[in-house]
Amino acid sequence: MPHIAVMLYPGRSDEIKQKAAEGIKNVVMQELGVSAEAVSVSFFDVPKEEFKEKVMAKIPDDKIVLGHK
After folding, report:
1. Number of independent structural domains in the chain
2. I need a labelling partner for 52 at 20 to 30 A (CA). Which of 9, 27, 44, 61 fits?
3. Would 53 be classed as within a structural domain?
4. Half-sphere exposure of 7 toward its Cβ, with a 13 Å CA cutoff?
5. Is 50 within a domain?
6. Residue 25 C-alpha from the chain's centroid
7. Quick one: DSSP state of residue 44?
8. Which domain holds residue 53?
9. In a domain, 25, yes or no
10. Is residue 50 helix, strand or coil?
11. What pLDDT was estimated at residue 1?
């Protein structure tokens, strides 16, 4: 069961997050060959001034597949 946690700056509505979660789910299903029931997605709003410390500092560089390192 893949779980995708999305950490982002605050300000997106629940509707936008739901649409994004559906898109993420669809890509994961297609690319990883799993069923819809196997995929879960969560969102965490993290203020911009805390993002580096609370999110990026806790993720090892070799685990970041795409984006900021």
Report:
1. 1
2. 27
3. yes
4. 13
5. yes
6. 11
7. E
8. 3-63
9. yes
10. helix
11. 86
